[in-house]
Design a protein that fits this description.
The complex is a heterodimer of chains A (about 250) and B (about 350). Chain A is α/β, with parallel strands linked by helices. Chain A contains nine helices and ten strands. Chain A has a domain of about 180 residues: P-loop containing nucleotide triphosphate hydrolases (Rossmann fold). Helices cover about 35% and strands about 25% of the residues of chain A. Chain B is built from 14 helices and no strands. In chain B, about 45% of the residues are buried. The chains are: A alpha/beta (about 250), B mainly alpha (about 350). Chains A and B meet through helix 2, helix 3 and helix 4 of A and helix 7, helix 8 and helix 9 of B.
């Protein structure tokens, strides 16, 4: 049953602090949704609840009809729910190729193999193809720490895509990327497989309005509203609370 | 995509390389291994009266190699490698006395016992990290030492386990008084263990261990059962440490409580840091340098030899943090001024 991701009544509290409250959310295959909201609205928390880094206090998270709320992070990744990180957590001392080969190995369930080469031809070829999609194929032999930040963000996406996810959560994919390079991120998002369900958690309104078909606004752990980019940019509550009057001027 | 054109280089056969394990010295495969082997054979002929000492070095190499898998590759900080070494030694000794005196079977017994000890303690240890893990790993070895001490009827307690009389190796080579057979036997074990670890280091398993060392949280995020992977690595390292202990038991024909001593774990760690972690050669070079310096310094001044070792460790940590393996690059940087290896 290919219904994608379905979240109902999702709540999370840390002691008395409620960071998510009664969130209902759908992300069918092929969706391009964005999650926006002021700092501390619970955007990253929501991403972490969906991927299993945090476990919810209440609520249902279904993926293709299966309740996954009790599964751990590794189990959910194996079902196809993957997330990029806000701050890159790449394997800095490994080469770019090894960074991409690792998720391929784990996706193929070969991580416990003592024999054969990790960078055997089939793994290396797939990694090379993936890197080529991001224009990074010539950097494959260099350690990640030697690369520019914008390139690292692209590798972050390539690494996550190597898992062949069916739901992809991009947590601030353009954070820290120089504005001259942010078009690379946008192009990378536009090239993602069509049937992939994508949720973008992002501050950069330009990027959100360029790639999202639908925008969810989160405020204090609750969904304020959901709509198309046009509807959201016209919504007076959003304009007042979040966009500060005019989204046309937000170039950051 | 802006790429620095000066540093890009077309990877001709990109499948053939793995960072940290280059294809060979000066690009010649197995050259480094051949040189080390030649040195080992040369040492046999150059120092015919020091074979017991040379064999001791080989045994330490096996122990330090096991630590390199656990610490250097998987990043598990431990100071309790003696727990598995000692267990392997006692197991091999008892096996030889009570079951079968065949040396190779004894090594297997040591490996199984070392692995079992690592598995049981690892199930607890791998749930912690950092300082807690170090303290717990020391505690495990201390508990083992105390059990061996109290179990006097079985282990001989403080008098040591005596009466180990191994059969000829493979039924052909008798352990002689001078230690010739023992030396080549130990050398053969070093070669097998080194080759095994080389295969593991470049395998998918080995790469995931490096990944865990770099970023356990990210490994979890790509679906790796990090805890079980670490337990496997610790168990495997335990098996190899057990082999080292078994080898010591067979060659010296004695197992004492020293096999569980904290000193042994600490010295193995120092050897690894001296040589350089995560690259296997470092374990070999570090063990050789430490043992030889120890031997010479202790002969010159039996009371203050530790001073020399201490100075050496300080020197390495401050000036060549990557260990002796990093020396060529450090010297190049010092004298040539352009040792920066972006392209190496």
């Amino acid at each position: 049953m290919m219904t994608g991701l379905r979240v109902r009544g999702l709540s999370k509290s840390f002691g008395g602090l409620r960071v998510a409250e009664g969130i209902d959310f759908d992300l069918p295959p092929g969706a391009r949704k964005a999650l926006i909201g002021p700092n501390g609205a619970g955007k990253s928390t929501f991403g972490n609840l969906v991927t299993g880094i945090l476990s919810p206090t209440e609520g249902v998270i279904e993926f293709d009809g299966q309740n996954i709320a009790r599964l751990n992070e590794a189990q959910r990744v194996r079902l196809g729910i993957a997330k990029t990180f806000q701050i890159t957590t790449l394997f800095r001392h490994l080469t770019v190729r090894e960074n991409i080969v690792l998720p391929i190995i784990e996706r193929e369930r070969r991580g416990a193999r003592f024999w054969g080469r990790a960078t055997a031809a089939d793994h290396a070829d797939e990694a090379q193809d993936l890197l080529a999609q991001f224009g990074l194929e010539e950097l494959a032999d260099r350690p990640v720490e030697a690369l520019a930040y914008g390139q690292q963000r692209l590798i972050e996406m390539a690494l996550t895509l190597a898992l062949k996810p069916r739901v992809l959560i991009l947590d601030e994919p353009a954070a820290g990327v120089p504005s001259g390079d942010s078009h690379l991120i946008v192009e990378a998002i536009e090239r993602l497989p069509e049937d992939l369900a994508v949720l973008i958690i992002e501050h950069d309104m330009d990027l959100v309005f360029r790639v999202a078909q639908s925008i969810v606004v989160l405020v204090q752990g609750r969904i304020l509203t959901e709509g198309t980019p046009d509807e959201i940019s016209q919504d007076p509550r959003v304009r007042e609370m979040y966009l500060g009057g005019a989204h046309a001027e937000t170039g950051s | 995509m802006s790429i620095d054109k000066t540093t890009t280089k077309q990877p001709s056969r990109y499948a053939s390389r793995l960072a940290g394990a280059r294809s060979g010295l000066f690009g010649i495969p197995l050259l480094a291994e051949a040189l080390l082997l030649a040195a080992a054979v040369a040492a046999f002929y150059l120092f015919p009266y020091n074979l017991a000492f040379l064999t001791r070095i080989l045994i330490m190499i096996v122990l330090v190699l096991s630590l390199d898998l656990i610490l250097g590759i998987a990043g598990i900080a431990t100071l309790g490698q003696a727990a598995m070494y000692g267990t392997g030694a006692y197991a091999a000794g008892l096996f030889a006395i009570h079951v079968w005196a065949d040396p190779v079977a004894g090594l297997l017994a040591g490996a199984v016992a070392g692995a079992a000890m690592a598995l049981v303690s690892g199930l607890l240890l791998m749930r912690s990290h950092g300082l807690t893990l170090i303290m717990l790993s020391i505690a495990v070895a201390q508990i083992c030492a105390e059990i061996a001490n109290k179990a006097r009827p079985i282990t001989g307690g403080a008098d040591g386990l005596r009466g180990i009389r191994p059969d000829p190796i493979l039924g052909m080579f008798e352990f002689d008084f001078v230690g010739r057979a023992g030396y080549f036997y130990a050398l053969a074990v070093v070669i097998v263990i080194f080759a095994l670890l080389r295969i593991i280091a470049r395998s998918p398993f080995g790469l995931t261990l490096r990944g865990i060392q770099e970023s356990p949280s990210r490994m979890r995020a790509i679906g790796t059962p990090v805890y079980w992977r670490l337990v496997s690595a610790y168990t495997l390292g335990g098996a190899i440490a057990g082999v080292a202990g078994a080898l010591a038991a067979q060659v010296t024909q004695l197992v004492s409580l020293e096999a569980y001593s904290f000193n042994l774990s600490a010295e193995a760690l120092i050897m690894l840091i001296l040589g350089g972690t995560g690259r296997l050669y470092g374990a070999v070079i570090g063990a050789v340098v430490f043992m030889v310096v120890h031997h010479v310094a202790a002969a010159v001044d039996p009371f203050n030899w530790l001073f020399i070792i201490g100075a050496m460790v300080l020197g390495v940590v401050f000036f060549v943090p990557t260990g002796f393996l990093g020396l060529p690059l450090a010297l190049q940087r010092l004298f040539g001024g352009r040792g920066h290896d972006d392209r190496a």
